[in-house]
Write a sequence for this structure.
């Protein structure tokens, strides 16, 4: 994969727009759209009065703004491409009429697909592929920057470093792989973790690439406050059996990605800081 191919793929994805979304997937789909740089012209069904015509006028205005996008996405329900919400059926009628009026068919003037029905699982996979393309581009640029044969190419020219190095999580992308190191609480927590297609409690989660001696794979995931504030935060854990879990815990509830430090483990006195435990992108 070349840098040119990666950049072209990234730019294509950034021209997409969600023009219709199943109400059960609204929160997750819009979150992924923001991460991918996709537009959102769809209506949030619970906030719309379907019986009035006001939603249609606002929808047409949003579609006009999405007119420059070459991929218009319809996010379907969990039942597949035929699983559409009540408002989605009305939106689809508007879309078909609008596109046939402008171009005579359901494709754009440049030949791109203007209406694509996708499931939530497919859209999650798009996020993973996007992250992988950015990782490939970053690795290629780093390789060129460190090569003595190309003295004119440097990290500064690509805006990837400055006089003060940025923290690892200040990057505007989500790493595909993380490395856990320095965990003295449970050695099998150390290792490489891989990004999963489906999020956990609306945030990315990771699973250890290699199983331990008992064929178990530990996970890094976020747990929201549904079971109380004491359990809300980031967890690095593995099931021990009978519902019991061996885990490390981080109280940073605001972090959108697994925190790199300040993890705690439990001993006979309670939760204690594990100063050597680190989670960093690789």
């Amino acid at each position: 994969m070349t840098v040119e191919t990666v950049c072209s793929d990234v730019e294509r994805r950034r021209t997409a727009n969600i023009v219709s979304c199943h109400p059960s997937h609204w929160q997750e789909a819009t979150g992924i759209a923001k991460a991918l740089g996709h537009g959102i012209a769809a209506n949030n069904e619970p906030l719309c009065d379907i019986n009035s015509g006001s939603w249609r006028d606002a929808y047409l205005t949003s579609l006009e703004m999405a007119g420059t996008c070459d991929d218009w996405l319809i996010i379907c329900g969990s039942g597949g491409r035929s699983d559409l919400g009540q408002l989605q059926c009305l939106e689809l009628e508007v879309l078909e009429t609008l596109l046939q009026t402008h171009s005579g068919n359901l494709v754009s003037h440049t030949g791109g697909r203007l209406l694509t029905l996708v499931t939530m699982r497919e859209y999650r996979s798009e996020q993973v592929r996007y992250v992988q393309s950015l990782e490939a581009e970053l690795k290629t640029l780093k390789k060129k920057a460190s090569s003595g044969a190309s003295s004119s190419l440097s990290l500064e020219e690509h805006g990837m470093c400055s006089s003060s190095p940025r923290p690892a999580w200040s990057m505007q992308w989500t790493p595909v792989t993380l490395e856990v190191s320095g965990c003295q609480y449970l050695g099998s927590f150390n290792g490489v973790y891989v990004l999963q297609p489906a999020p956990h409690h609306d945030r990315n989660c990771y699973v250890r690439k290699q199983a331990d001696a008992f064929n178990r794979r530990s996970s890094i995931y976020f747990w929201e406050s549904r079971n109380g504030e004491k359990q809300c935060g980031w967890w690095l854990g593995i099931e021990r059996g009978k519902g019991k879990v061996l885990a490390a815990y981080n109280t940073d509830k605001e972090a959108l990605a697994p925190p790199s430090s300040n993890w705690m483990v439990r001993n006979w006195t309670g939760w204690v800081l594990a100063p050597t435990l680190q989670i960093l992108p690789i």
